[in-house]
Design brief:
The longest helix has 27 residues. The protein has 11 helices and no strands. It has one domain. Helix 1 runs parallel beside helix 6 and helix 6 runs antiparallel to helix 11. The C terminus is likely disordered.
């Protein structure tokens, strides 16, 4: 009786999943139990200050060092993490970063290429976790937007691009992917609707008994733009992600019989 060869790829993928989860837990102990991460404190206090109607972009030396450099919508999205104890919230945040990136890469590159990709980005993920950055979530949003486009799911693509862009500006580049797909104007309307919906939710939060926050939108916009220019934290990770997206196209993972609705042609506009 012939024996089937061992599933080396599946085993390696499971080991890498364990490595991602273990790293998230160990970094949480390092940055949430033994010490308290200042970056994560900035995120948590931004959500708290949003509810309190305080100026998000002013100095808050009694809360943390440094300034909040993200959009008010990111503070709104961070509210669940502000309700938990510090260490537990940091664990949830680290697991979200690690597991969402893992999920996105496995979906992007099934089989052995996915294992190589997971190993390739691991050190960048670990660096992002240690600095309590949002880079892994942002990178995952870019990949998932790409996958949604490939499967003809424009609303899902718009959601991922909008969510990622409200954290950092890089996912906004994903709008260019719509040029390679039909019904580009439909996607533009969907993206505008998602942005309006998120902004409306922020306005509703502001109107629910919150005093005028006085954000100072011009310096806020500048800080938000500068948050995308942190090369020591994110350049390598995002370069790798863009390369992986290119590889995914080159090895023809998305064939027309698997994705009947996504007529994708790189190099030519439909």
């Amino acid at each position: 009786m012939a024996h089937s060869p061992p599933d080396v790829t599946g085993r390696a993928r499971r080991w890498l999943l364990g490595l991602y989860v273990t790293s998230a837990v160990l970094v949480t102990i390092q940055k949430g139990v033994l010490t308290q991460s200042n970056n994560f404190a900035v995120f948590r206090w931004a959500a708290i200050n949003l509810l309190a109607g305080a100026d998000l972009y002013a100095a808050h030396p009694g809360q943390h060092v440094d300034f909040y450099k993200y959009s008010p919508t990111f503070a709104l999205l961070f509210l669940p993490f502000a309700q938990l104890p510090f260490a537990l919230a940091l664990l949830a945040w680290n697991l979200l970063n690690a597991l969402l990136l893992y999920y996105a890469l496995v979906r992007l590159l099934p089989g052995r290429p996915g294992v190589v990709a997971l190993a390739l980005v691991y050190l960048e993920l670990l660096l992002s976790l240690q600095y309590t950055q949002s880079n892994a979530v942002v990178a995952a949003s870019m990949i998932l937007a790409f996958l949604a486009f490939e499967r003809g799911r424009q609303l899902r693509a718009a959601l991922w691009i909008a969510l990622g862009t409200f954290i950092k500006l890089f996912p906004l580049a994903g709008v260019a992917l719509a040029l390679f797909h039909p019904r580009r104007w439909r996607f533009a309307v969907l993206l505008a609707g998602v942005v309006v919906a998120l902004a409306t939710q922020l306005a509703l939060t502001h109107d629910s008994g919150i005093s005028e926050p006085g954000w100072g939108f011009v310096p806020a916009a500048l800080l938000f733009a500068l948050s995308a220019l942190e090369p020591k934290f994110m350049t390598n990770l995002f370069v790798i992600i863009f390369q992986l997206l290119f590889i995914a196209k080159r090895i023809h993972l998305f064939r027309s019989d698997r994705v009947p609705k996504a007529s994708v042609q790189f190099g030519t506009l439909s």
